[in-house]
Amino acid sequence: MPKTLPQRIVFTIVMATIMVYGMIVYNVALNTGGVTNATFGMALHEMPIMVPVAFVLGWAYGFGLWFVGAFWLFTSIHTYGDTNAFLSILMIAFMAAAMGLFTAFQTWLYRRFFPETPLTFAPLWVLFEWAKTWVFTGFPWLFAGYAFTERLLDGYAPLFGIYAVSFVVIVLACALVEILNRRWFWAIPSALLIAGAWGAGFIQFVQPKAAKPLSVSLIQGNIPQDLKWLTEYQIKTLEIYATLTRAEWGRDLIVWPESSIPLFQTDIPDFLKAMDIQAKKADSAWVTGIPYWDLPKSQQVGEPLYYNSIMASGSDSHGLYKKQRLVPFGEYIPLSGMLKWVLPAMQNDISMSGFSRGEANQEPLTIKGHALAAAICYEVAYPNLTRRNAMNSDFLITVSNDAWFTGTAGPWQHLQMVQMRAKENGRWFIRATNTGVTAFIDHNGHIVKQAPLDEEFVLRGDLPAMQGQTLYNRLSDYPILIFSLLLLVMGWIYRPRKVDVSFKSRR
Predict the structure, then answer these.
(1) Which of 124, 204, 264, 372 is most buried, with most CB under 10 Å away?
(2) Is 368 left (phi over 0), alpha (psi -120 to 50) or beta?
(3) Are 27 and 109 in contact (CB under 8 A)?
(4) For 77-98, what is the HEC assignment?
(5) N-term to C-term CA, the chain
(6) pLDDT at 334 over 70
(7) What is the dihedral of CA 81, 86, 89, 95, to 10 degrees?
(8) Is 256 helix (H, G, I), strand (E, B) or coil?
(9) Coil, strand or helix: which one is 448?
(10) Which of 228, 322, 323, 423 is catalytic?
(11) Of 458, 465, 469, which Cα lies nearest the Cα of 428?
């Protein structure tokens, strides 16, 4: 099995090619009445015709989607990565071209092997969205369902998650095309899906606990990204956060965002001890993002192990959460030796390289007798990871540093994901960030309070503990994925036996 990134890429291409060729052989056999030696030659003859046409159609859509939808990466690569503008755009174009292969392959499969109906297009779309969470480490961004955050269709999120929302969105979009083509039947399932989303809003999976809500202060330090990790600015950063926190002691919970402490815990033991003492004296819990150096384990394995982490301390509070999903080119650099000339500033930045992956199934933080499930930054993009962390929790917390993408759509896209995770799991989500968007989000995914962007701010609010489980929290993504797979199998079985290989419309 492949172990390195280049091996995985080659392995994926080889396996995809074999699978595609096998499906072509099968279809040629159906059209010719059996398998002969000529069947394999005919299949090879079809591949050069089919691949370019279908791939170009899907790839063009995928490229445009990712180039525009993820162009916020330009700020981190160019402004903070010290990469010139042309090369930065070229890198984004390369990323968009690579991610566009998902829709390219999806389009080819749909046009070649399935009947044209919403009930095959939507499940295939969902399965490819799911694939984006794990293929090549995963980049689960720009799902169709996120466009309906805080809109009617997100009522399916507590039932079957974001993939169900995407499924319904795509079915309705396809059904609209069918209706415009005077296939009036599709008005019926469309109305049923919309009614189902409305009805789902009345289902109450969770309810508040009898316990008094926690009084919470989220500290937004607004530290510029180009200064954050400078040695000479580290103490200044601590001073800014300590000053903003001074008036908040006595609140139940005080939260500092991701890497708000730009030093290892081993570098500032006295500071951490003083903060713990102050928190206990004020009867407050203190949660902060901090790079954590696991010295005992490092000595055991013979190499340094650094983690992007969240640490809890103070009154009746403790715990440590280590980030499980690391950002490529954000927290580690794939093929770093080959890319030193491309991303010079990222090589010596602790925030950009060298982090280790935290173990799975970590315990929630304990905050005044409550279980606080954590997710750090990019992790909220992974529905099932957040779901696992949220199990047996009273509320959720995410800390982030979106200063990398100040002034772009990135922080707002990120916020939508947090909202969807809150609704999926039926838990309040508090989000503390360096520059924004800092917010309180209720169990229905609604923003209750929000701090202004790009300024020092303390956002205060109350955090109720919730009990109960949503259907999604119990069952994960399995129902919608299995349902999508069954629809595709049925579409495959009942597809037309005569396949139009010209790629003209079969309509």
Answers:
(1) 372
(2) left
(3) no
(4) HHHCCCCCHHHHHHHHHHHHHH
(5) 43
(6) no
(7) -80
(8) coil
(9) strand
(10) 323
(11) 465
* Angle between the N-to-C axes of helices 85-113 and 37-69, in degrees from 0 to 180, rounded to the nearest 10: 140
Catalytic residue among 46, 129, 248, 258: 258
**Farthest CA pair distance, the chain:** 83
pLDDT exceeds cutoff 60 at 501: no
From the list 126, 191, 165, 93, the residue with the least C-alpha distance to 487 is 126
> Mean pLDDT over residues 435-443, rounded?
94
Distance CA 225, CA 463 (A): 29
Which tokens sit at 382? Answer: 């992974």
- Cβ atoms of 321 and 365 within 8 Å: the answer is yes
* Distance separating alpha carbons of residues 26 and 449, to the nearest angstrom: 57
CATH 3.60.110.10 domain position(s) in the chain: 208-469
User: What residues contact residue 192 under an 8 Å CB cut-off, 6+ apart?
Assistant: none
Q: Is the pLDDT of residue 408 over 60?
A: yes
Query: Residue 139 has which token pair?
Result: 């980049």
Mean pLDDT to the nearest integer, 474-488: 96
Catalytic status, residue 377: yes
Which residue has 């690579």 as its token pair?
98
Q: What pLDDT is attached to residue 238?
A: 94
Q: What are the tokens at 157?
A: 């999120």
Looking at residue 348, its pLDDT comes to 47
Question: Is residue 437 pLDDT above 70, yes or no?
Answer: yes
Among 140, 152, 168, residue whose Cα is nearest residue 386:
140
- Residue 176, CB-side half-sphere exposure with 13 Å CA sphere: 6
Q: How many distinct helices (H) and strands (E) make up the chain?
A: 16, 14
Q: What is the pLDDT of residue 72?
A: 84
- Mean pLDDT is highest, among 45-59, 78-92, 202-216, for 202-216
pLDDT score of 22: 53
Instruction: Name the active-site residue from 129, 174, 331, 377.
Output: 377
Token pair 């090619």: residue = 17
Tokens 């162009």 appear where? 71
- Per residue in 451-465, pLDDT (tens digit) is 999 999 999 999 999
CATH architecture of the region 208-469 = 4-Layer Sandwich (3.60)
pLDDT of residue 53: 57
| Averaged pLDDT of the chain | 85
Residue 207's closest CA among 499, 484, 466?
466
For tokens 């309906």, the residue is: 148
The model's pTM:
0.83
Say how many C-beta atoms besides its own lie within 10 A of residue 392's C-beta.
10
Q: Can you say how many angstroms the Cα of residue 451 is from the centroid of all Cα atoms in its chain? A: 22
| CB 231, CB 350: distance < 8 Å | no
CA distances from 22 to 40, 156, 491 (A): 9, 36, 18
